[in-house]
Design goal:
Shape: elongated
Oligomer: single chain
Strand content: 15-25%
Number of helices: 13
Structural class: alpha+beta
Distance between the termini: 38 Å
Helix content: 55-70%
Amino acid sequence: MSGIKKVLAMAAAVVVVVLGTAPAAQAHGFSSTVYADLTSPAREQVRAQLGLEYDLLVVSAADAGKDDLLFKDGTAAFESGDPAQQATALTKHADAVVSYVTKRFTVAADGQACTAQRDGDFTLEEREGVPYVSLVLDFHCPQAAAHEIRSGLFPDVEGYVKGTKTIVTYHLDLKKGSSALDDQHPVLSTQQSTGQRFWEFFRLGAEHLLTGLDHILFLLALIAGSRRLREIVLAATTFTIAHSVTFVLAALGLVHVTASFVEPVIALSIAVVAGWHLWRLWRRGRTATDIETNARSHLSLDRAGWTRLGVVFCFGLVHGLGFAGALGIDEAWSWQLLWSLLVFNIGIEAVQLSLIALTFPLLALLRHRRPVAALWATGTIAAGVAAAGLFWFVQRVTGM
């Protein structure tokens, strides 16, 4: 037992490292998402409804237009947290804001540039706990068979944004579709192939999991606490089923839960799943990875294994809401939308299975050849992951 306690004590170094990377789990201030919905309400007209992060838009537009008053008014409105004041600040400096956006978000018809103008007022909404500006632009275009949409919004010289995804949904040229644009793939054509659409949403899902440190740590906690291959396979399958259900329901607008609830619970789930393994180490020592011999299920799970699956399923439902919030699509049912959601989910699962395939065999080999060393390794990982989860939980609850 004393050896296991030493494992937990030695984990302090890992805890320090993990907590040092904790801010990377915060999407805001690191990466951004722009939302664009394009339709054609009349001939030779394309209407784009854009959703952009308020504070990022203020900083970038003020810097691009050398407009110190926009920065001053916009920052004061942001700190006030009052949507009406934020809309007023943008309206006061509408020319600078619209100029910034229309230079970086453009529409062309068969290669000919369309001219844009603002339609209606600025309005504010909240996405994942962050204020977003809704801006409607009307593009006047020559008659054409196809349209090209280009997005170069963010990052700019503001410096703290590392990358931006522009999630585009469109109903143009007698076609419905969706796509994800970034600095490597900034252009969408309404004539894009099915294969191109598949790859874009697959890549978006894969990148979301790879860059989401909280989801990665949850998966590591599952791997560290799994005693046999069947346990991690069943845990991963359970997690997939659970988050797929809420992911689709939330993205289709059938379920809505605020980010102020979802994000803290995701952080708590990391701590609970990792803490589960630490608790078994503390109580059972070297037998922590043993399975009860009276297990008679055809899945060969004991009571602890079934209980763990139930916990994973419940937390998976919440993670699905987090995935849906990251994609940012919230609209009525359509087969095109469902197809995009499923491909996004396939990208998530491909990365998840790859990480399991890379890490669990090494852990299994270590447990077979060096059982005590395996306990040290999993205990250290679990302690660091649990500490990070608790840190994020407090951070997200208190808003620090």
